[in-house]
Amino acid sequence: NLPSLVKRSFRRLVQQFGDTADGLRVLQWNVLSRVCGEATSSPYHIRVLQWNLLSQALGQMNDNFVCCPDAALEWRFRRYHIIEEIVEYCPDIVCLQEVDHFNFLKTVLGTQGYNGMFFPKPDSPCLYIKGNNGPDGCAIFFREEKFELLKTETRVLEVWRVQSNQVAVIMLLRVRETDQELCVATTHLKARNGALLSTLRNEQGKDLLDFVTAHSGGRPVIICGDFNAEPSEPVYVTLLGCQALRLGSAYASTGDGPEDALREPPYTTWKIREEGEVCHTIDYVFYSTDGLAVEAVLDFPTGEEIGEGRVPSFSYPSDHFSLVCDFRFKNASEVVS
Ligand code: NDP
Ligand code: CA
């Protein structure tokens, strides 16, 4: 079996240094010195972190997580947990959804060597919440030391040629050391249950694939996102069936045996709302099987580690868990044409 990354925690650091400007600087220094030496520094490898980090406005005012203490959702604490969750794995590329504090992320991740871009949803539900911090949307960050940004593209996803309220972002990146190029995309598809919404997500998925195919130019592709669809939904089959991109799902392709929906993790989100417990797999990292190989994925915490109140909580700042995958660029002899 492929190795799993080991989950590490910096939670003590945050509690120790607290919520001051000086505290943040100390935290940054410690995080840098502790994780970067262990990360994949090879130009032939890429570590990707995919995460719906939970919009501050939606999480606090809209989601109604009945077991989460209000204090755990306060931005002045939660924002450091969000940063910790991202930097502790030292990813090369970060794909985020429900971002409604992009400027904060850009500033703090900027101090860690990342640059990024953001694209908001056209009619974000955040805008209807009192005290909101602007619309939520998708963002991609990349490590500037490793990559040169060649191009960005954004799209409001269409369903039967009509714009929807969901978006996608593309970045074309070049690995500085090798000149290897890569296309990274992220999206957050329409939420909620029902046959019509499942059809709508499938149409959004088709539009996303057309968008990525049009801009990837034959480069290896990584498509990360909150697809709001379990592996049994049509959009999952659509993504894996794309003839032009020949995608695999990173978490389903680790370990022995054939790659299929049954190998996806048992959950990527686990929360308790008034109507009950919601525990399912809806976030994925898809990748070009021709150009990339999966070398490791980060395990998810167990139910016991998560705790009975599930997430978000003081330990986990979002109702979704982060997915972290190590990819290797295949060399020419491995690439099947
Ligand atoms: P989506 O249906 O895609 O969902 C929006 C967000 O709600 C997602 O981030 C989703 O999180 C979250 N969500 C999913 N299920 C629940 C749930 N059971 N309870 C609480 N939150 C949930 O939104 P759209 O982009 O299509 O935007 C439509 C929304 O915008 C409407 O639902 C409406 O509330 C709001 N709106 C309000 C208006 C108004 O007040 N006048 C006008 C226009 C829009 P996740 O992806 O993690 O599941
Ligand atoms: Ca959400």
Describe how the helices and strands are arranged:
Layout: E1 4-5, H1 11-17, H2 21-35, E2 45-52, H3 56-61, H4 75-87, E3 93-99, H5 102-111, E4 114-120, E5 137-143, E6 147-159, E7 162-175, E8 181-188, H6 195-216, E9 221-226, H7 234-240, E10 247-249, E11 269-273, E12 276-280, E13 283-288, E14 292-298, H8 303-306, E15 323-329
Parallel strand pairs: 1-14, 2-3, 8-9
Antiparallel strand pairs: 2-15, 3-5, 4-5, 6-7, 7-8, 9-13, 10-13, 11-12, 14-15
Helix pairs in contact: 1-2, 6-7
The structure holds NADPH dihydro-nicotinamide-adenine-dinucleotide phosphate and calcium ion.
Residues 52, 58, 62-63, 98, 121, 123, 125, 128, 165, 190-192, 226, 228 line the site of NADPH dihydro-nicotinamide-adenine-dinucleotide phosphate.
Protein described:
Helix 6 links the parallel strand 8 and strand 9. The protein is of the alpha+beta class and 337 residues long. The longest helix has 22 residues, at 195-216. The chain contains 8 helices and 15 strands. The strands form 3 sheets. A 7-stranded mixed sheet has the order 1-14-15-2-3-5-4. A 6-stranded mixed sheet has the order 6-7-8-9-13-10, with helices on one face. A two-stranded antiparallel ribbon has the order 11-12. Helix 1 runs antiparallel to helix 2 (21-35) and helix 6 (195-216) runs parallel beside helix 7. The protein has one domain: Deoxyribonuclease I, Chain A (4-Layer Sandwich). Helix content is 25%, strand content 31%. It has helices at 11-17, 21-35, 56-61, 75-87, 102-111, 195-216, 234-240, 303-306; strands at residues 4-5, 45-52, 93-99, 114-120, 137-143, 147-159, 162-175, 181-188, 221-226, 247-249, 269-273, 276-280, 283-288, 292-298, 323-329. Bound molecules: NADPH dihydro-nicotinamide-adenine-dinucleotide phosphate (NDP) and calcium ion.
